[in-house]
Write a structure and sequence with these properties.
- The complex is a heterodimer of chains A (437) and B (157).
- Chain A is built from 17 helices and ten strands.
- Chain A has 437 residues and is α/β, with parallel strands linked by helices.
- Chain A folds into three domains: 202 residues, Rossmann fold; 90 residues, Ubiquitin-like (UB roll) (Roll), CATH 3.10.20; 102 residues, de novo design (two linked rop proteins) (Up-down Bundle), CATH 1.20.1440.
- In chain A, the strands form three sheets. A four-stranded parallel beta sheet of chain A has the order 3-2-1-4, with helices on both faces. A four-stranded mixed beta sheet of chain A has the order 8-7-10-9, with helices on one face.
- The longest helix of chain A is centred in the last third of the chain and has 18 residues.
- The radius of gyration of chain A is 22 Å and the shape is globular.
- Chain B is 45% helix and 13% strand.
- Chain B has a five-stranded mixed beta sheet, covered by helices on one side.
- In chain B, helix 1 packs antiparallel against helix 2 and helix 2 runs antiparallel to helix 3.
- Classes of the chains: A alpha/beta (437), B alpha+beta (157).
- Chains A and B meet through strand 3, strand 7, strand 10 and helix 13 of A and helix 2, helix 5, helix 6 and strand 3 of B.
Amino acid sequence: MATPELILAHADERDLTRLGEYRAVGGYRSLERALELEPAAVVQVITDATLRGRGGAGFPMGRKASLIDQKNPRKYVVVNADESEPGAFKDREIMARNPHLLIEGCLITAHAIESRAVFIYIRGEYLAEYEILARAVEDARSAGLFGDVDVVVHRGAGAYICGEESALLESLEGKRGQPRPRPPFPPVTGLYAAPTQINNVQTIAIVPKIIELGVEEFVKIGVRSSPGTAVFSLSGNVVRPGNYELELGTPLRTLIYDVGGGIPDGRELKGIIPGGSSVPILTPDQLDTPLDYDSIQAAGSFFGSAAVIVVDDRCCMVQLALRAAKFYMHESCGKCTPCREGTRWLVQLLTRIEEGDAMQSDLDLLVSVCTRMLGRSLCALGDFAVYPVSSYLRKYRAEFQRHVDEGACPFGDESSIAGIEAPIDAHTHFPTVEVPA
Amino acid sequence: MTDSPFYDEVQELKRRYPDWRSATLPALQLAQEKHGYLSPDALRETARALGTTPAFCESVASFYDMLHLAPVGRHMVEVCTNLPCALAGAQRVVDAFEDELGVRPGETTDDGAITFRTVECLGGCGRATVVAVDERYHELVTPDKVAAIVEEVRGDA
C-alpha cells in the first residue's frame, strides 16, 4: 500500500519545526514559484486541482477564492485552526510537526487573493501547538519570507462553535462566537465585513504541495472528484489509533484493519463514525466505502473532518448518543431556538431512554425532535446534534427498543462507556449568585 | 492605573489588529493570568485598557469555557470525556481523580489548590485518555497514572 505523503512528508526524519530543516527539504520554494505567478493564475491552479476544504464542508477552495472581489483593497486570509470536532486531531499534528508548511500555504493564499493580512485562529486548548506555530511565524518573519504580508496567530478561549467559520470570524472580532446569517458568505463579507478567504489548516497546508507537484501530478493522487491526500484521525476501539495520511478514496476497511490493526481484544466492530462525532454512523457492512467526499455521502454520511471513530460491541448506543447529545447541548451557542432547545430535548429524552423510564412514544418523539431541528438553524450545529442521535436510532433501533421494553439499559453496567460524565453534568463556568431569602 | 504594565500590554495587543475589538480575547486571557480568574476588578481593568465597558467584557467572557468568571483553584485538572476518550475508558480516569482529589468534577479542593473538571474533546483522541493540567496535555492516561499526576500538581502548589 503506497501512501504518498504530502502534508507530513519528511516529518518523521526531520524536525520540520525548524526553518532550516524545512528549507532543506524544499520548503518555501513553492512560495517563490507562486510569487512569480499572477495572483489569478495561483487561484486557477487551486481551482484546477479541485482542492476541497478539509475542515468539514468540503467546499472547493478555488471557488471560494474566485468569489473574492479582487478590487477591494482590504482582504483577509483566515486559517481555521479551531479544530474541536470530537475525533479530529489532524490539524494539531500538522501544526506541531510541520508548521512552516501551513505558513507557506498562508503566504501563497495571501498572494492569490492579494491580501496583506493573515490570521490563524487556533483553539485555546492547543497551547503547545500555539507556541510552536508562533515561533515558526517569528522565524519566517525574521527570515524575510513575509514580504509585505503580516501573519497573526490568535488564540481562541474554548468554544466548539468557533470552528464554524462565521462564528470564528465573530470571535476573531472579539465578540461572542455566534454564527452569522448567510448570505453574505465570508468571501463577500467576512472579517471586519471585508472579503475573506477562510480555510481549514489542512486545506491551506496542501496548497504548497499543489504548487510543488503541479496540478497534473496532484490530481493523479486520490480520486478524480477529490484529489490529494488527507490526514485521517483514527480513534476509538482500534489497535493503533493515530493520524495517518492516506490517498482520498482509500477504503474504510484499509484504514481500520490494515493501518489501524483492527478491533482490539477480539471484539466485534459495531459502528464507524467516519467524519467526527457530528456525522451519521456507518455499520460494518459499509466497510468497503472509499474515504472520499462523494463516496461517504453516497453511503449516507459525511467526510467531515476525516476523523474516524471506531466503536466496538461493548458500547451501548443509547449511551453513545446521549454523550454526543450532551456535547452539542453544551456547545450550542443559544442563538437559534431549534438548536438551543432541541439539544436539551435530545438530552432529556435520551436520559429517559437510558434510565429505562421511557414510554414507547418517546422513541417517536425523539425522531420528531430530530426532524424539527434539522435544517432549522443558522449554522450546522443544530444538524450536527441530530445526525448522531437520528442515525444511531435508525441503525440500532432494536437496542433503543430494548431499553424501553426492559425498562433498563440492556448492558447493565457492562457498557464500555457506562456512567460517562459530561461537562454539562457539572456546569461550573457561571458564578453562583446567592439569592437573598 | 492607566500606565500599568497590563494597560500597556493591552495597547500592544490592540495594535496587532485592524480593529481594537479583536484584542478582547487576548486581553481577557492576560487579565485571567494576572488575577487567577475574571473577577469584577479584572473585568473593569480589562475594559478600561480596551476602552470599552465591563459589561461587554463579561458578555464575551461568559461565552468561553477557558475563561472563568468565578474563582478557580491555582491549578486546573481537566479530563476529556468526549466519545473517543470515553471509548478508551475516560470514566475510570475521572473516577480515579475523584478518589485522589476527594472532589467531584466541577469542584475545587478545600485548600484551593486544584479545580477538577471534565471537558469536551481536547483533540488528543489518538492517545486517549487526555488530561490537561494547567493547559499542558498528558496523554494515554490510565487510572494507575492518576496518583503521579496529582502528586506532580500538588508539588507545584
